[in-house]
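User: Quick sanity check before I run a bigger batch. Here is a single chain. Can you write out its predicted 3D structure?
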Amino acid sequence: MTTLPLESYIDHTLLKPEATETQIKTLCSEAKEFNFKTVCVNPQYVALAAKELKNTDVGVCTVIGFPLGASTSQTKAFETTDAIKNGATEIDMVISIGNLISGNDSIVVEDIKAVVKAAGRTPVKVILETALLTQPQIAKACQLCTDAKASFVKTSTGFSTRGASIDDIVIMKANISSEMKIKASGGIRSKEDALKYIDAGVDRLGTSAGKEIMKGSVSKKDY
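Assistant: Done. Predicted structure follows.
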């Protein structure tokens, strides 16, 4: 059971392509109200979120190579540098899913390393998109993320066939270094969901339902 405040686990998220400036400002306002760990927004809104959250303890997380992971490593590295320049304090990159499934381990590792290098001291979470992977592939992905010195492994983009599952977390936890952390995302819509994942060993939760989770209600929305 968690001994940390529930809000400190939450990346309050809005990644829908139709998200507006007004909605991002509302997201930031809610994050300040509940003191969430970060807001997670698309790169075009990083500067706005950083401005809205200035002089608060809420960080700004953004996504790189999102949601397919199929950008070149050079593109992902540039996105990362640009996002940090604009105020991002955490980076969530999508792994090269096709290369992972193809068994091109060295390409996957170098792709992650490119983002980790570009990020410098900024934490990098690697989105595995577990819905598209077999259990052995999830295990391999975690090992490659460890080799590349990422800070976190993350389950999902929220844009595939499903979000996180407890089975994913069990595999991930067994295949990362003791220094690495886990972020669960996709389908986490209630306090019950949140506590279930925290009890399973998750260090961060990506959800569009942060407000509902803190109020103990259930959201039908997901990012």
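Residues 105-119 form the longest helix (15 residues).

User: Great, the batch can go ahead then.
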